[in-house]
Specification:
Elements (H helix, E strand, L loop, with lengths): L8 H20 L6 H18 L6 H8 L8 H15 L9 H11 L16 E4 L2 E5 L6 H12 L5 H15 L6 H16 L9 H6 L1 H14 L3 H20 L7 H11 L3 E2 L1 H7 L5 H13 L3 E4 L6 E4 L1
Antiparallel strand pairs: 1-2, 3-5, 4-5
Length: 316
């Protein structure tokens, strides 16, 4: 069965706007992602998604864990981050419409945190906010059937942007696991979006959810009362649009020199000139290009031959 929701005018306008922005991102930005920027965005994604769940580790501590350095902090928080790193390092191995890989992702994400990692709950649960029960999830005996229907919906011809939002909401409503439902909902929305739009591999829209956390939970509650996910679709599409806006407002001037160098050296021939470098980064000045190349030489990433206009650089 198709989950209940309506594609109103606001949603249709947001889809049109987002589709245009994705086209702009693909043509102007997608191939300029350096390894450094990808790493930074992964850190932001992990930090924001776990922060929503109460994790206390900072972006600096998460960076240290990614680099296999020791970190002092609550053991549970460290385990959560290490698990998330494993999952986000292997995003491309997950297939959005595969319930098997969905459960595998949960198993990795929650390993060492709960006994039932990778398994649907066998108990009835309710979500408590303060002193009140905010949501009573469907009975445990219905979970398998509800999740099977939800994965069947993912195979439909509905727009990926819509499917990702609907899955996120419906999964939160079903609450299929004893723990880890929130982070799995956000993770799987990314997996669904990535299959159609590769840019979402490194677009940390979880950061914006984290910043509007109260609204996130408020909209989930309103959808529960309404009996459909329409408001949540609108909310998530606005978050995605804002994330893309921030991405498109980024330009080469804000890139650190090492980011430009890493990108250029991974996409260029063995021998090149300063002009070749500036043809890739059209927004930087001649002096900035010269400083970048000087830095690359100091780091022994390139060799400089000749002087002035006859200078040639070679990759080491």
């Amino acid at each position: 069965m198709k989950p209940p929701y309506e594609l109103n005018q606001n949603i249709l306008e947001l889809i049109t706007s987002i589709s245009e922005m994705i086209g702009e991102v693909n043509s102007n930005y997608l191939n300029k992602q350096s390894p450094t920027l990808r790493k930074q965005n992964k850190i932001k994604t992990i930090h924001s998604s776990l922060q929503i769940e109460g994790n206390t580790l900072s972006e600096q501590q998460i960076t240290a864990l990614i680099e296999n350095k020791k970190v002092i902090g609550p053991e549970k928080d460290i385990v959560e981050v290490l698990n998330a790193i494993k999952v986000y390092d292997n995003l491309e191995s997950y297939k959005s419409s595969s319930e098997k890989t969905f459960l595998k992702a949960h198993q990795v994400l929650m390993q060492g945190l709960i006994e039932s990692s990778g398994k649907y709950r066998n108990k009835n649960v309710g979500i408590v906010k303060g002193s009140q029960v905010a949501h009573v999830a469907p009975p445990s005996e219905n979970v398998r059937f509800l999740m099977k229907d939800l994965f069947e919906y993912l195979k439909s011809k509905e727009i990926h942007l819509i499917k990702s939002c609907v899955f996120h909401y419906e999964m939160e409503f079903i609450h299929p696991f004893m723990d880890g439902n929130g982070r799995m909902g956000r993770l799987w929305q990314t997996v669904i979006l990535m299959e159609k739009y590769p840019v979402f591999e490194f677009l940390p829209f979880e950061t914006l959810i984290s910043k509007s956390q109260n609204e996130y939970y408020k909209v989930l509650a309103l959808c529960d009362k309404a009996g459909n996910s329409t408001l949540f679709i609108e909310y998530m599409l606005k978050v995605i649009k804002q994330s893309l806006n921030e991405l498109l407002s980024f330009n080469n001037r804000t890139m650190k020199e090492i980011d430009r160098i890493e990108y250029f050296l991974s996409h260029t021939l063995k021998e090149f000139s300063r002009k070749d470098y500036m043809n890739v980064f059209k927004d930087i000045s001649t002096s900035t290009a010269s400083r970048d190349l000087k830095k690359a030489a100091e780091l022994n990433l390139i060799l400089k031959e000749g002087n002035d206009n006859k200078t040639i650089y070679k990759k080491v």
